[in-house]
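A quick aside before the break. I want you to see a complete sequence-to-structure record at least once, exactly as it would be stored in a machine-readable document. Don't worry about memorizing anything.
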Amino acid sequence: MHARLSQPAGLSGHASLVAAAVLLGTLYAGSTLVTPLYPLYQRAFGLSDLTITLVYATYVVGNLGALLAMGRVSDQAGRRPVSLLVLAVSGTSALLFLLAIHPALLFIARAASGLAIGVGAATATAWIADLHSAKDKAPASRLAAAVNLAGLAGGVAVAGLLAQFAPWPLRTVYVVYLLILFVTAALTLRTRETVEHSTHASQPLSFRPRIGVPGQARAAFVAPAVTAFATFALLGFYAALLPNLLANSMHVHSPALSGAVVAELFAVGAATVVLTPTLTARATMFAGLWLLPPSLALLLWAQVAGSIAVLIGATALCGIASAYGFRGSLQEVNRIAPPEHRAELLSAYLLCCYSGNSLPAVGVAVLSSYVGHLWADGIFAAVSVGLVGVALGVGRRR
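That is the input. The structure line, written in tokens, reads:
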């Protein structure tokens, strides 16, 4: 049960909405700070490609912990206290990265980051929906999706620039991020609470997982689930493996450039969400699916040709495809979900997203050690195209 409180915490309704959006963007920015730093960590600690990919994938362990145990905690405990706790966990993650003197700390820091963002994203997204003035929550969903992608883009771009041009490339970015977290916490303290105190004071917190696909929605769930897996596989490929792809295939060792390319992916995605508000869920999802194969083909061409220009074009197309795939599949799941099972179905959808974000990236890293980077990336592209065919086939039959 959600309700507007009669006494705001300090900020007006519109200012509180902006503060909740800042919270969401700040949390997501933290998830990509490490992306352009992977080659630097690899050299500093003498890590293999597979180990550095496993560091990336550990993020999903935290995501899954949040999904299975704490997905609805802010509905009971309140948006503000959960958000402040999440900011503290995110700050702990940044401190672990800042002080990392052993590879084990990278794994712990990355898992803590995943936990913070898994809980914080759900909390901030719900807070944005609570605070949005429109009865139709579609604009709130588009705002959350755009802020999500903008935060990802901003985090990786700033991290790349600081790693390239600032002193102490593995330290400075986390000092800056800790300062941003402090400012965000100050804003969060004054943001209007939208969960009645009587609601969360009278009920014990529940950490029981709520995940599943009800029987009447199983057939319709296949297409958006496969779309989400394929879309997040592409995002995971970029975030985990692109810096090493630039280094190994194009002989480019620039954190600023790798950060800028990954930022382009997310920035184009954010612009796509903002500029195409009227497309239906199914049309958006199918558009994302149809754009994935040419995106992957361009990406492989860039790798074979060693061309930064082709890579920039491929990244733009991948950004559009991933934005359509994510937004369309999420809206489709919301459309088909029975109201009494919406939370379970959305949790199942997020499980597909998180799995797609990690498992293929690890698979590519393992394959690369046996068949080389180009063949591994080609197999990844072929499997992704196969998933696109499955999603399109099932979706059209529905």
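Two observations worth writing down. Confidence is low (pLDDT under 50) at residues 1-9. The two ends are 34 Å apart (CA to CA). We'll return to this after the break.
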